[in-house]
């Protein structure tokens, strides 16, 4: 089990990015959250088995919606956290 913190840049706000991210994470059974940042990036924390988290990041890199354009995904290791078994959108 791993936890990653992602900062995603590109055309990622106002294009359904958070909703698409939520759907992918739930399909894969991951826990964590996604939120917009004031600087125009999107921040994601995702937790689950390493192979599943890697698959999640690959799907995000392709864009969770057809309107999103991903320029960069910055990834750092996080600490295992109790997300109460859910992946959510935070404001």
Automatic annotation (TrEMBL):
The keyword Hydrolase applies. Coiled coil: none annotated. The active site is at 18, 36. Pfam families: Acylphosphatase. Its EC number is 3.6.1.7. It catalyses: an acyl phosphate + H2O = a carboxylate + phosphate + H(+). Keywords: Hydrolase. Residues 3-91 form the Acylphosphatase-like domain. Transmembrane segments: none annotated. Belongs to the acylphosphatase family. PANTHER family: ACYLPHOSPHATASE. This is Acylphosphatase.
């Amino acid at each position: 089990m791993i936890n990653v913190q992602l900062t995603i840049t590109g055309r990622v706000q106002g294009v359904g990015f958070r909703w698409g991210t939520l759907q992918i994470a739930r399909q894969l059974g991951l826990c964590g959250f996604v939120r917009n940042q004031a600087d125009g990036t999107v921040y994601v924390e995702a937790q689950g088995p390493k192979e599943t988290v890697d698959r999640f990041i690959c799907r995000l890199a392709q864009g969770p919606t057809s309107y999103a354009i991903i320029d960069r995904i910055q990834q750092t290791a996080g600490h295992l956290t109790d997300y109460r078994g859910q992946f959510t959108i935070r404001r």
